[in-house]
């Protein structure tokens, strides 16, 4: 499957998918999926947020895995301490119409902290679209992306086809946190966000007419 990446250009023949200006902005939760010491995620997240904030059809809020301490032992009746941690992230996930999930690739997959955040929630993901942005070494994190597609499918979320992927991410950005080759990732991000906006509005309108019952 071909994927829009930071290393490839986007064909001019790809039709634009846009959200009408008269519609309410799509509320996007940008999930920073790494809590590793010395992580590169915030650099990529800042770049993604800048692309989102250039648009009038989105409103963005950040959900950072590193900002919350959730145990790996899941519970249907969390303790007050865990409930307080969930309160830092759950309202933003619940309020979102769509998600942009950023992931590195650790050992051929995505980080445990991101999986833990996902698993602590269920209804917050249902019938909503997810765009995936990855970064890493030679693979650009794309193996992590393919694993996440399976996880979100189980949660009744819809992953959009196109992604943004940064191969050799540390060298792909300059000291100011900007891609050294800005045109390709910017074009890939536009295609991805256009698709995300289309799905977000379509699913929001559909749920407004009839609750999702899958």
Description:
With 214 residues, the protein is α/β, with parallel strands linked by helices. 36% of the residues lie in helices and 16% in strands. The chain contains seven helices and six strands. Strands 1, 2, 3, 4, 5 and 6 form a six-stranded parallel β-sheet that branches. Helix 4 links the parallel strand 3 and strand 4. The longest helix is centred in the last third of the chain and has 27 residues. About 7% of the residues have low confidence.
List keywords for this structure.
single chain, about 210 residues, alpha/beta, six-stranded parallel beta sheet, 7 helices, 6 strands, about 35% helix, globular
Short précis:
This protein has 214 residues and is an alpha/beta fold. It has 7 helices and 6 strands; from the N terminus they run βαβααβαβαββαα.
Number of helices: 7
Residue share in helix: 25-40%
* Average pLDDT number: 91
| Biggest sheet record | 6 strands, parallel
Low-pLDDT windows of residues: 6-15, 17-22
> What's the shape?
globular
Order of helices and strands: EHEHHEHEHEEHH
Radius of gyration: 17 Å
What is the strand content?
15-25%
Classify the secondary structure makeup into a structural class: alpha/beta
């Amino acid at each position: 499957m071909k994927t829009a990446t930071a290393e490839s250009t986007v064909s001019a023949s790809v039709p634009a998918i846009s959200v009408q200006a008269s519609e309410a902005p799509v509320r996007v939760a940008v999930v920073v999926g790494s809590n590793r010491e010395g992580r590169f995620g915030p650099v990529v997240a800042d770049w993604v947020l800048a692309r989102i904030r250039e648009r009038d059809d989105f409103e963005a809020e950040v959900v950072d895995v590193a900002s919350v301490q959730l145990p790996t032992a899941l519970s249907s009746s969390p303790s007050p301490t865990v409930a307080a941690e969930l309160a830092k992230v759950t309202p933003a996930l619940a309020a979102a119409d769509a998600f942009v999930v950023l992931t590195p690739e650790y050992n051929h997959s995505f980080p445990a902290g991101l999986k833990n955040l996902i698993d602590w929630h269920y209804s917050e993901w249902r019938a909503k679209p997810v765009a995936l942005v990855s970064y890493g070494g030679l693979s650009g994190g794309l193996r992590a992306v393919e694993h996440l597609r399976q996880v979100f499918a189980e949660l009744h979320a819809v992953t959009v086809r196109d992604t943004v992927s940064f191969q050799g991410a540390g060298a792909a950005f300059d000291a100011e946190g900007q891609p050294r080759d800005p045109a390709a990732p910017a074009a890939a991000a536009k295609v991805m966000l256009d698709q995300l906006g289309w799905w977000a509005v379509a699913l929001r309108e559909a749920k407004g007419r009839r609750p999702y019952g899958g």
